[in-house]
User: Fold this.
Amino acid sequence: MEIIQLKHNTPLWKQTIDFAENSSWIPGKHIAGMLRENRFTDWEAFFAATENQKIIAHCSFLKEDYYPENKYSPWISSIFVTETARGKKVSHKLIQTAITYAQSKGFTKVYIPSDLKNFYEKCGFTPIDTLKNYAGDYDTIYMRQI
Assistant:
């Protein structure tokens, strides 16, 4: 498995759009749109995990996330691992890659939003808040010092 920071308009960028568009994850179509429109600015980034030259997972590194009240930054978000690749710590490797990238940009904390319980704690994150997202649901906000 390899984790790669995507570069706009490369074959892997286009492959990731297709992967997200056709994933079983409901927000996949939104992620595909973000990539299609290249909605990333400044230091924001997108990472993909590949195996045998196929996308198996992705995550983003963003200034803002899916919350009207964006009081935290930067976000590690859009974490999705295809069903056949789960249980292999792919998401942990994606998160660590995003953390290394965050450190290279001078950040000392990172945040992950999620409704999963007892998952991100295994990656060193602590729940610090609950925020209402644009859909009206509440997510736990996890933070990690880096």
